[in-house]
């Protein structure tokens, strides 16, 4: 699957089987990517995935129930799945967040490993439901600050994260898109968006063909229409998935969403500025 390899998945068939699979699913020491006990499993998939309970959790190092963590909801890029969160979170932060990855709405292979985001009304509604269920599940299991929920996604997942945040802006503290354009279509809650002034971070590769002058003008016009507070960061090359971009994602979130947080990354976990695919 290229840059993101799908780790072992979990099944609830037996306790011993779950533990056996879990032992092979954490590529980073100290960073726990926990199974979802409510049905994280892979099987024969049809064209659509209507089961919104497929998700993957990531716990920070030295997790403490005494602290209310920000929750980072991750939308994978097309062709991958909810376990992409397990691979990006260690490069964002090993300490600052609880993370949860959700699954795209359209299966694109016969074994149910790869999914796309479908932007039809049914696909959007399914995604919205999956996000709300993931937030509820994370809040039930872990210590989550309900006012510090951030949506973030890569490429097509970034567009879906923006769309989800714009549909219910009062539910989220901010939204981040790595290489995903602003969603198109009719905006029905324009006044709500203008009052909310949603914080957004757009991260673009300078050679990403999606971000030509015409597309940028269109996206900025939409942003101005809804009154969002947008910070734009550009990176050399055609790919936004670099350790520098992921570090910036963390820095922006801590500055705009968790400004008073006492939990910060140690230099021990610092990443060198290199392409993600080179790690």
What does this protein look like?
The protein is α/β, with parallel strands linked by helices and 279 residues long. It has a single domain, classed as Rossmann fold. Helix content is 30%, strand content 18%. It contains seven helices and nine strands. It has helices spanning 15-22, 84-92, 121-141, 156-167, 190-196, 213-226, 243-256; strands spanning 55-58, 69-75, 98-102, 106-107, 115-116, 144-154, 174-178, 199-205, 229-235. The strands form two sheets. The chain has a seven-stranded mixed beta sheet, sandwiched between helices. The chain has a two-stranded antiparallel ribbon with strand order 4-5. Strand 8, helix 6 and strand 9 form a beta-alpha-beta unit. The relative contact order is 0.13.
Structural class: alpha/beta
- By CATH reckoning, the class would read Alpha Beta
* Largest sheet: number of strands, sense, barrel closure: 7 strands, mixed
Q: How would you spell out the order of helices and strands?
A: HEEHEEEHEHEHEHEH
What Rg do the Cα atoms give?
18 Å
Which strand order spans the largest sheet, edge to edge or round the barrel?
Answer: 1-3-2-6-7-8-9
User: Helical stretch count?
Assistant: 7
Mean pLDDT: 80
The overall number of domains is 1
Please give the number of β-strands. 9
> What name does CATH use for the topology?
Rossmann fold
CATH architecture: 3-Layer(aba) Sandwich
| Helix residue percentage | 25-40%
Fourth-tier CATH superfamily name: Alpha/Beta hydrolase fold, catalytic domain
Low-confidence stretches: 1-51, 260-271
The gross shape turns out to be: globular
Q: Estimate the strand proportion.
A: 15-25%
Euclidean distance between termini CA atoms: 15 Å
């Amino acid at each position: 699957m290229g840059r993101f390899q799908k780790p072992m998945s979990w099944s609830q068939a037996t306790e011993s089987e779950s533990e056996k699979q879990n032992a092979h699913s954490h590529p980073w020491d100290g960073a726990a990517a926990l199974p979802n006990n409510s049905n994280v499993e892979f099987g024969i998939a049809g064209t659509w995935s209507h089961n919104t309970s497929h998700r993957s959790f990531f716990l920070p190092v030295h997790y403490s129930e005494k602290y209310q963590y920000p929750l980072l909801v991750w939308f994978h890029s097309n062709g991958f799945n909810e376990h992409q969160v397990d691979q990006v979170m260690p490069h964002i932060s090993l300490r600052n967040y609880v993370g949860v990855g959700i699954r795209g709405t359209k299966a694109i292979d016969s074994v149910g490993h790869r999914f796309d985001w479908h932007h039809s009304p049914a696909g959007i509604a399914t995604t919205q439901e999956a996000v709300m269920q993931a937030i509820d599940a994370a809040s039930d299991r872990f210590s989550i600050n309900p006012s510090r929920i951030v949506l973030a996604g890569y490429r097509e997942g970034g567009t879906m994260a923006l769309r989800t945040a714009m549909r219910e802006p009062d539910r989220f503290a901010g939204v981040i898109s790595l290489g995903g354009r602003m969603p198109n279509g009719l905006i029905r809650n324009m006044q709500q968006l203008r009052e909310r002034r949603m914080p957004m971070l757009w991260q673009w590769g300078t050679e990403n063909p999606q971000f030509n002058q015409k597309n940028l003008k269109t996206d900025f016009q939409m942003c101005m229409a809804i009154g969002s507070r947008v910070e734009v960061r550009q990176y050399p090359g055609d790919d936004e998935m670099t350790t520098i971009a992921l570090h910036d994602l963390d820095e922006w979130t801590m500055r705009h969403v968790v400004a008073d947080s006492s939990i910060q990354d140690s230099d021990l976990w610092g990443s060198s500025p290199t392409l993600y695919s080179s790690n």
